[in-house]
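Long-time lurker. I teach an intro course on protein structure, and each term I like to show students one example going from raw sequence to a predicted 3D structure in token notation. This year I'd like something fresh instead of my usual example. Would anyone be willing to generate the tokens for the chain below so I can use it in lecture? Attribution to the forum is fine with me.
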Amino acid sequence: MSIPPSISTAKAADTAPDAKRRSRQIAVVMMLVAASLAVASALHLSGAVGAGPKPFDPTDAGIAEAVIGAVLVAGAAALLRAPDRGRPFAMGATVLAIVGFLVGLNFTARPGHTPDLVYHIAVLPILVGSLAVQVRSRRGSP
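-- Reply from a regular --
Happy to contribute to a lecture. Here you go:
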């Protein structure tokens, strides 16, 4: 027995606002992480965060944070502009951020700089959760 078109259309109409809302929520999370990266980048580039032992370099960290933040903003903008077409860009930006945070965690864990370590450990699950929601909310998923 098949579902009558009127019921199928109603179900699709009910999930469309949910998908848009979910895309907006993901974009907001991405922008909040990008804002936190902008602050971290400014702190590293200004010298407010002291240099740790090698191989940590605050200038390199600041540049990496700025680039990752810019990519997250671009991914969020793509997702807000056209959720279906922007989703791959948002997912790619989030994957880049996760990889960047893993690299950053590796650099901050060695010298044990507590604020950087806590920041990476706190934000990494947010990024992973955001990616999980993006993967689950692919086109056609409830």
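Some talking points for your students: The first helix runs from residue 5 to 46. Helices lie at 5-46, 58-81, 83-109, 114-136.
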